[in-house]
């Protein structure tokens, strides 16, 4: 068993996403840790190599800030594009971090938030398929549904990574690292 650790500010880490059955889903090769505590990890990356479970590789197109929290079943990617900040929110297990990577289980459901604040819940069909195929428990389903509601409240209230000050502070800090 690998010892869990707190990511060190300024270090570079991989992010590893798994599926409920334990199979690897996606790996981001490098993220710069901007903040690491026992509850929150904030990182930044740009033009990062991503490897999919089927071996396909691609490189992210824009700078992004990633936000993970120990108490919530979601993580948030804030992507900086020419027309504003887009958010891609993964419904997922809370993260664990060790010396190898930041790790979490991806539970299919996603919320995409646009620069104008509008948002959409995505991949409900994929969730239903995987819930049956990988036997997500009723408890996990309840937790995820509750966290979809929590995440929507964060978006609407501009809380956490959706707060304008969050973006300014962490984008500036990431830019200073590069």
TrEMBL record:
Catalysed reaction, written as an equation: a ribonucleoside 5'-triphosphate + H2O = a ribonucleoside 5'-diphosphate + phosphate + H(+); a ribonucleoside 5'-diphosphate + H2O = a ribonucleoside 5'-phosphate + phosphate + H(+)
Residues the entry annotates as binding Mg(2+) 2: 108, 110, 123, 126
Pfam families linked: DUF402
InterPro entries from the UniProt entry: DUF402, FomD-like_sf, Ntdp-like, SA1684
Cofactor(s) needed for function: Mg(2+)
Domain DUF402 span(s) in chain numbering: 21-159
Keywords for this protein: Hydrolase, Magnesium, Metal-binding
UniProt KW Metal-binding keyword: yes
Active site per the UniProt annotation: 26 (proton donor)
Binding site for Mg(2+) 1: 90, 106, 110
Superkingdom of the organism of origin: Bacteria
Enzyme Commission designation: 3.6.1.15, 3.6.1.6
PANTHER family associated with the record: PTHR39159, UPF0374 PROTEIN YGAC
Free-text function comment from the UniProt entry: Has nucleoside phosphatase activity towards nucleoside triphosphates and nucleoside diphosphates.
NCBIfam families: PRK13662.1
Similarity comment: family membership: Belongs to the Ntdp family.
The protein's name in its UniProt record: Nucleoside triphosphate/diphosphate phosphatase
Species of the source: Jeotgalicoccus meleagridis
